[in-house]
């Protein structure tokens, strides 16, 4: 159950009521919100007289659900906004990893030239093999901060471990939680305490309910800047890297109040399929796209097979606004 306490309720009283009802408490604007287990169906007696509104929930998809808030949450960074009433489809693009200054600067120049506001690039790479390139770490973050300053781009990068969060939010704009980290309680709880946007990727073996509950962990700390990302799930199919779960994305779009970002690059795993999937994702009416683009994909140090080269990406990007318009959206 979600319980909104009356305006003017003190912190002390809100926390006391939360403790008595085993609820999580946080503030939204000037109101205290208490969230109990969804098994609670009746306003607990101790709260009688203190509640302004309450919502009975049928599962622990609570704060993320359209039952709680039918309006889509707006997530904003620098000059970019998604969700809310915007009808925006944000294109976030860039290499899988920061590899060196020339590579990341070439990527930044491409994005600025196209009018793209947000660059992606990883510094802490969650590689399956310990022998693969692991990312440049803090050195990469410093390059991203420099790019951000020099080109006025917003930056999204992954925090692979909760100890990275402070550095990631100091140097960049959006924290990405990778598919392999979706269940990491310490990352989720650290992201609950910050007030910067978080892009939460669905684990490739995770149900939609599990993804949403991971999002609830962030939301219930009072960070309402959460975006969900579908990036492909593992199925019996082996010809493609993953299976792009647009049916799941349709569920998220309908039942949650969080912006839905689609990542065709990781789903497909091969560059040849990415343009078609990207067009389908725009026609789907997603709130944003996460695309891997590299100045020279052949020599990329991670995810080489799926990254688009600059010419292919430019052509693709220039064709997206017409598709967006047809579904009453605009590319930003
Ligand atoms: C990435 O975005 O480069 C990445 C590692 O993605 P995922 O967590 O979806 O595998
Ligand atoms: Mn990648």
Word description of this protein:
It is a single chain. This protein is 33% helix and 20% strand. The protein has 332 residues and is an alpha/beta fold. Helix 5 packs across helix 6. The protein is globular. 47% of the residues are buried. The structure holds phosphoenolpyruvate (PEP) and manganese (II) ion. Phosphoenolpyruvate binds next to loops.
Quickly describe the structure.
This protein is α/β, with parallel strands linked by helices and about 325 residues long. Helix content is about 35%, strand content about 20%.
Topology:
Layout: E1 2-5, H1 11-20, E2 24-28, E3 31-35, E4 51-55, E5 74-77, E6 80-83, E7 88-94, H2 101-114, E8 118-120, H3 138-151, E9 154-158, H4 165-171, E10 174-177, H5 185-193, E11 198-201, H6 208-219, E12 226-230, H7 246-255, E13 260-262, H8 264-268, H9 274-284, E14 288-292, H10 310-318, H11 320-326, E15 330-331
Parallel strand pairs: 7-8, 7-14, 7-15, 8-9, 9-10, 10-11, 11-12, 12-13, 13-14
Antiparallel strand pairs: 1-3, 1-4, 2-3, 5-6
Helix pairs in contact: 2-3, 5-6
The structure holds phosphoenolpyruvate and manganese (II) ion.
In order across it, which strands form the biggest sheet? 7-8-9-10-11-12-13-14
Percent helix: 25-40%
Which range does the strand content fall in? Answer: 15-25%
Bound molecules: phosphoenolpyruvate, manganese (II) ion
Summed over residues and divided by their number, the pLDDT gives a mean of 97
From the N-terminal CA to the C-terminal CA, the straight-line distance is 37 Å
* Biggest sheet layout: 8 strands, parallel, barrel
Extended strand count: 15
Low-confidence stretches: none
Please, how many helices? 11
Secondary structural class: alpha/beta
Gross morphology? globular
- Rg over CA atoms, rounded to whole Å, is 20 Å
């Amino acid at each position: 159950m979600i319980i909104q306490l009356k305006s003017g309720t003190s912190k002390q009283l809100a926390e006391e009521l939360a403790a008595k009802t085993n609820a999580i408490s946080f503030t939204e604007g000037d109101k205290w919100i208490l969230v109990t287990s969804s098994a609670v169906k009746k306003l607990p007696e101790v709260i009688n007289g203190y509640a302004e509104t309450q919502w009975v929930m049928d599962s622990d998809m609570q704060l993320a659900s359209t039952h709680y808030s039918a309006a889509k949450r707006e997530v904003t960074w620098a000059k970019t906004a998604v969700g809310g009433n915007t009808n925006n489809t944000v294109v976030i693009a860039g290499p899988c990893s920061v590899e060196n200054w020339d590579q990341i600067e070439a990527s930044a120049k491409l994005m600025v030239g196209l009018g793209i506001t947000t660059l992606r690039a990883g510094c802490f790479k969650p590689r399956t093999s310990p022998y693969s390139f692991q990312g440049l770490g803090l050195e990469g973050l410093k390059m991203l901060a420099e790019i951000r300053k020099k080109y006025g781009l917003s930056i999204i990068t992954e925090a692979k471990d909760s100890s990275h969060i402070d550095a990631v939010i100091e140097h960049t704009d959006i924290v990405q939680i990778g598919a392999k980290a979706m269940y990491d309680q310490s990352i989720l709880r650290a992201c609950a305490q910050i007030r910067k946007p978080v892009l939460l990727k669905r684990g490739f073996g995770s149900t939609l309910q599990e993804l949403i509950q991971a999002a609830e962990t962030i939301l219930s700390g009072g960070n309402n800047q959460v975006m969900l990302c579908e990036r492909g799930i593992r199925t019996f199919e082996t010809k493609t890297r993953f299976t792009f779960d647009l049916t799941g994305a349709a569920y998220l779009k309908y039942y949650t109040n969080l912006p839905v970002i689609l990542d065709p690059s990781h789903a497909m795993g091969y560059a040849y399929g990415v343009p078609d999937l990207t067009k389908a994702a725009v026609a789907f009416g997603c709130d944003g796209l996460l695309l891997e683009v590299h100045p020279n994909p052949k020599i990329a140090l991670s995810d080489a097979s799926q990254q688009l080269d600059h010419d292919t990406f430019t052509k693709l990007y220039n064709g997206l606004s017409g598709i967006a318009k047809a579904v009453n959206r605009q590319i930003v």
